[in-house]
Amino acid sequence: MSDAYVVGQPDGLSPLQVELRDAIARELHAQLALRSERIELSDVPEVAYQVTLRVSDTLHRPLSALDPS
Question: Which domain of life is it from (predicted)?
Answer without folding.
Answer: Bacteria
